[in-house]
Amino acid sequence: MAKLYFRYGSMSCGKTLDLLKTKFNYNERGKSVIIFTSKKDDRYGKNVVKSRIGIESDAIGVDDTFEILKYITNLTLKPDCILVDEVQFLTEKHIMELSDVVDSLDISVICYGLKSDFKQELFPGSKSLLSICDVIENIPVICWCGKKATVNARIIDNKIVYSGEQVLIGGNDCYLSLCRKHWKEGKIKKD
Fold first, then answer.
1. What is the C-alpha to C-alpha distance for residues 49 and 83, in angstroms, rounded to an integer?
2. What domains does the chain contain, in order, with CATH numbers?
3. By the number of CB atoms within 10 A of the CB, which of 27, 72, 110, 121 ranks highest?
4. Distance CA 188, CA 2 (A)
């Protein structure tokens, strides 16, 4: 039975690495996979997903006008699984289309992304996904103190910032995974 999954975590927890591992497992068993990713995150180029350790794969870039369900429905050979990277940047319409892929086409969809932004506000795509997905899984990462990191702190000039636009594409240069306590205290490292 197909399901809609949301695997989320903080920055640097290995979401894309987990996606690529899942793709490898499907392919190793002779199963086909399609990967979608948001065109908003183009740090590693267009139509590609790449983990921070360098492993990468081709992907289909999705912008706000892309029709996921139509794309999948028009394929001659349907995939065994759909993987989605950077799901937080997808629209509510995209999330509903992914649920239609599960419910109408009986294809499992595994989505990877951030749940909330640097202000602890839900991303629109994540909010929609959380409300309808079948399975929610956290991919853990730790804060510098050793506790579970739950916050994607935005860092500018070695200081945590708490205001600004929701989307600022970046990696370790702009974000740091922290526990809630150290995010509140504004501490990015041990004194």
1. 11
2. 4-140 (3.40.50.300)
3. 110
4. 41
